[in-house]
Design goal:
- With 439 residues, the protein is mainly α.
- The chain has 2 domains: 353 residues, no CATH class; 62 residues, no CATH class.
- It contains 19 helices and 3 strands.
- It has a 3-stranded parallel β-sheet with strand order 2-1-3.
- β1, α18 and β2 form a beta-alpha-beta unit.
- α2 crosses α3 and α5 crosses α15.
- The protein is globular and about 65 Å long.
- The mean pLDDT is 91.
């Protein structure tokens, strides 16, 4: 590959990643949302009323901000995903900070899926990159003194206001300072971690307790899952997170899952080999420490905090720095051929998206007409479920929330007597929804 071709490949990958991100939510029957998305969009819709402390306000307020420019909450979430990706690329290019690596990582199908999702991981990734950049500047002594402490503390607090797992990053930051206590920058990392922890404690008493006094009691439960289950989930989670091509297992099981996890396992072994074989800079050691600490903390917190099984989405803030260092080391061996990994990932993503396609735009039109006929396009909607695990029913609620975000799930059968309570039967007797072919 000559120099001109090598310059064009990154541009091609950026365009291809941007395009596939759009196709990822348009070729989906419900626009890539999930039950958490319902809560995000509703929180944004009803603000300044606070009806949710399960997640920080950073992402919902970002949605709210974009609604002032003519977006509704759903399309605002898609704009955030696209802008988040563009920020990563532009910031890395402008600062000459892992630019090629960011293009390689951002084009992986797992990250394309994140940018297309109505979830807060899309928003936190640019702040993760900013955090890594500030930390690198401090380690290399380009930022020192009080300015270093202010910048690092600010970005840690910003991260926590987007996702609570940023607490793990605060812990990793302080731990890095303790382990390198003889370095000039050590106290900056220790103090920033402490400042972050003070903010977390203050946030709990001043915000969470004010709006939901039972939050901690309702979410903490010792011995929530057995170790045997969590270890299996960790293995499947990591082998899909670090599979460059396919990041989702087939729910039906089968040999295909062994192949998916096998590719991920081989890649993990290659990652470990490259990290052990190559000399790591202080900044690279910090990046890897943040990633490893974040993954370990995400695992252990499952013993007493109810979260979904670890997957590419939940671990994205911690896998990003690992992917960045990995691709940097891989480029020293493969050079420009490293781009082939991301090209193949984008190709597999396009094929998967095409095969599993639905038609969100058509479904949105159907739901819009239905809500208008029921006079529910505005105001609160309740959607009745007997079981939160009933995916067929909850998909309809998710789709409705993309048109009217002021939706809450209810499990009380008495609520079905209300005019603003919908059920799967009430919706599907009047409209037809285009389903994902793999449902």
């Amino acid at each position: 590959m000559n120099k001109n071709q090598e310059k064009l490949v990154p541009i091609f990958l950026v365009i291809a990643t941007f395009a596939l991100t759009i196709l990822r939510f348009l070729w989906n029957e419900k626009g890539r949302v999930n039950p958490d998305s319902i809560r995000f969009m509703r929180t944004s819709k009803v603000f300044p009323e606070i009806d949710n402390t399960t997640t920080p306000l950073g992402y919902p307020l970002s949605l709210k901000f974009l609604t002032f420019f003519g977006f509704d909450e759903f399309w605002a979430s898609k704009a955030i995903g696209l802008l988040a990706y563009l920020f990563l690329v532009f910031f890395a290019w402008k600062k000459k900070f892992y630019w090629k690596e960011i293009i390689l990582v951002g084009g992986l199908f797992s990250f394309v899926s994140i940018f297309s999702y109505t979830m807060s991981e899309a928003l936190i990734l640019p702040f993760i990159l900013l955090f890594l950049y500030v930390s690198h500047q401090i380690i290399t002594e380009k930022i020192t003194g009080s300015a270093a402490l202010i910048y690092l503390s600010f970005v840690l607090i910003a991260l926590y206001n987007i996702r609570y797992p940023a607490l793990f990053i605060m812990f990793g930051t302080g731990l890095f300072g303790i382990l390198h206590f003889r370095k000039k920058y050590a106290r900056t990392f220790i103090y920033a971690g402490i400042i972050g922890l003070i903010f977390v404690i203050s946030y709990k008493f001043l915000f969470i307790d004010r709006f939901n006094k039972n939050y901690v009691d309702s979410f903490l439960e010792i011995g929530l899952h057995p170790t045997s289950k969590l270890v299996r989930e960790l293995f499947s989670g990591l082998t899909t997170v670090f599979n460059p091509f396919i990041h989702i297992l087939d729910p039906a099981g089968g040999r295909i899952n062994y192949a998916i996890m096998g590719v991920g396992l081989v890649n993990i072994l290659l990652i470990i080999f490259l990290f052990l074989k190559n000399t790591l800079t202080e900044s690279e050691k910090f990046f890897l420490m943040i990633g490893f600490v974040g993954i370990l903390c995400s695992y252990f917190i499952q013993y007493f905090y109810s979260v979904n099984a670890l997957d590419y989405r939940l671990l994205a803030p911690f896998s990003l720095p690992i992917w960045m260092v990995y691709f940097k080391k891989l480029r020293t061996i493969l050079g420009s051929y490293t781009y082939a990994v991301t090209i193949l990932s984008l190709m597999s993503g396009f094929i998967f998206t095409w095969l599993a396609r639905g038609n969100y735009l058509e479904n949105r039109q159907q739901i819009t007409r239905f809500l208008q006929s029921e006079k529910l396009e505005n105001g609160r909607i309740n959607f009745f479920l007997e079981d939160e695990e009933d995916l067929q029913k909850i998909r309809i609620a998710e789709l409705i929330s993309t048109v009217n975000p002021n939706l809450k799930l209810t499990f009380k059968s008495n609520d079905t007597l209300r005019k603003n309570t919908l059920t799967k039967y009430k919706v599907l007797r009047k409209i037809k929804i285009d389903k994902n072919q793999f449902q």
